[in-house]
Design a protein that fits this description.
The chain has 492 residues and is of the alpha+beta class. It has three domains: 213 residues, Histidine kinase-like ATPase, C-terminal domain (Heat Shock Protein 90, 2-Layer Sandwich); 127 residues, Ribosomal Protein S5, domain 2 (2-Layer Sandwich); 86 residues, no CATH class. 32% of the residues lie in helices and 22% in strands. It has 16 helices and 19 strands. The protein has an eight-stranded mixed sheet, sandwiched between helices. The protein has a five-stranded mixed sheet with strand order 9-10-13-11-12. A four-stranded mixed sheet has the order 16-17-19-18. InterPro entries: HATPase_C_sf.
Length: 492
């Protein structure tokens, strides 16, 4: 149709502020988007700190030691959807990530950056956006203090870096009296998700990601180091001849390689389970772009059944080119195109197709089912709820072949007289959360707290999970153990 005229239709400021707050990031996705910027700025350290008082979270800071920005560069970075050209190796693309990710979690975004010894700071708030997009310039002297306070290494003057501050966190919070538990769960989930998304950078490039929860009443907060969680880190492949490299051509992007892996049957490592009790949801494609994991599992219309139990061992690593494929806003999934689906169906490794690979993965799982349950006879090891390093070290000691049965830990409500209970259906030792604060003493609750108590309970009870039957005599012994421990807890 012929154009007969034109008019300006700028976005409504108030509507834009509401829209940014409703973009569907979860916390891990939002933080990952900011870490992308840190990596693009050549940072070797990223510190994420949750500031709290006794009742709620008051702020979150994301600090890095990257090259920082000048005042003019910071002004450009604060613009929504800038025209700055990104390098093909950059993880950021459209200039929206920092702002959209931040406003999905907070109502006030401050960025403090230092370069060549000079500090610049700007702030966006909901109100500033509604007031015709008026970004605030902040006092450099006050910004200097905020910059220094975001890092755990006090006394060290950093010459360059950037700090992002989230304030007014009405989307991040816990019910009354449950802040400790909320933070413990949040930290545990972030260790898994960030360790997975950035596992190549952590393992290969020396990137260090630290998580801290810091009280306003304390100058000290013990950092948690995010460990790499490689979804392909098995001791030996499940089938000889794997991993196998398939190749195909994607129009507009050229040749891409797909590395088909088959995990060993009976695997139960953190790298296989990826934070869940079962690995079935983790089958499928693992798409990487510039070494950053974009999508962890899923078949992207290549298969109709996205959770086929017989394909629980099948994972395919795909390194995508910088251009030619699109992701969702959160950079957590690849947007499927007909061209991509067709390219995947054409992938070959010699005379083998992906269909042949999938049949090999199914056959491997079927062969496991025909054998007696390996898991029941496998050595027990501590699972979720115990520090990852302890779990890995115990596994090395007792599970020489890499196959083990994980016994998890959880804090839940139990009858008043019980310190612990056994959940033999789901392989768990459940501790009474009523006594958690007594057992922890002055230590803060976390997803892997009370490691000594949990490890001792594991050693005491591990054989009970492999018993064919639970006798009345054994139940009485468990009852007496609970009674003795309860008396000890009362003295704390």
């Amino acid at each position: 149709m012929k154009t007969i005229g034109a008019f300006k239709a700028p976005p409504d400021s108030a509507g834009s502020a509401r829209a940014f707050s409703r973009i569907g990031y979860d916390l891990a996705e939002a933080l990952a988007d900011l870490i992308d910027n840190s990596i693009d700025a050549e940072a070797s350290l990223v510190e994420i700190t949750f500031f709290r008082n006794t009742e709620r979270l008051t702020a979150v800071t994301i600090a890095d030691d990257g090259r920082g920005m000048s005042a003019s560069a910071l002004k450009t970075a604060m613009q929504f959807a800038t025209s700055v050209r990104h390098k093909p190796t950059d993880l950021g693309t459209f200039g929206l990530g920092m702002k959209s990710a931040s406003f999905s979690q907070c109502h006030s975004l401050t960025v403090v950056s230092r370069q060549a010894g000079k500090v610049a700071a700007c702030r966006w708030t909901d109100e500033a956006i509604k007031a015709d997009w008026r970004c605030e310039l902040l006092d450099p002297k006050e910004a200097e203090k905020a910059f220094a306070g975001a890092f755990s290494s006090k006394g060290e003057t950093r010459k360059h870096g950037t700090v992002v501050v989230w304030d007014r966190l009405d989307r991040l919070g816990a019910a009354e009296g449950e802040l400790d538990e909320f933070l413990a769960k949040t930290m545990s989930q972030l260790e898994i998700k960030l360790g997975l998304v950035f596992h190549r950078f952590i393992a290969r490039s020396g990137l260090k990601i630290l998580l801290r929860a810091k009280s306003e009443q304390s100058d000290f907060a013990l950092p948690h180091v995010v460990k790499p969680l490689d979804p392909f880190a098995y001791p030996a492949p499940g089938k000889a001849g794997y991993p196998k490299t398939f190749t195909t051509n994607l129009p507009g992007a050229g040749q891409i390689k797909l590395e088909g892996h088959i995990w060993p049957p009976g695997a139960a490592s953190p790298e296989f389970l990826l934070g869940r009790r079962r690995a079935t949801p983790h089958q499928g494609f693992y798409f990487y772009r510039n070494n950053r994991l974009i999508q962890a599992g899923g078949w992207n219309d290549f298969l109709k059944d996205t959770n086929d139990p017989e394909l629980a061992l099948a994972r395919i690593a795909v390194d995508l080119p910088s251009e030619g494929t699109a992701t969702n806003v959160q950079k957590s999934a690849i947007q499927v195109s007909t061209a991509l689906t067709q390219a995947l169906s054409r992938a070959r490794a010699g005379g083998s197709s992906l269909a042949d690979y999938l049949e090999d993965a199914r056959a491997m799982l079927r062969s496991q089912k025909r054998r007696p349950r390996a898991n029941a006879a496998a050595p027990a090891v501590p699972g979720v709820g115990v520090p990852v390093q302890v779990r890995r070290n115990v596994r090395k000691l007792v599970a020489k072949k890499g196959v083990a049965r994980e016994i998890d830990f959880a804090w839940e409500s139990l009858p008043k007289g019980k310190v612990f209970d056994l959940d033999r259906v789901d392989d768990r030792i459940v501790l009474n959360k009523k006594y958690r604060h007594l057992i922890l003493g002055h230590a803060r609750a976390s997803g892997a707290d009370a490691p000594v108590v949990k490890t001792l309970l594991f050693l005491l009870l591990q054989d009970d999970f492999s018993r064919a039957r639970f006798s009345a005599q054994r139940r009485e012994w468990i009852r007496r153990c609970n009674a003795v421990l309860l008396e000890a807890v009362k003295t704390l």
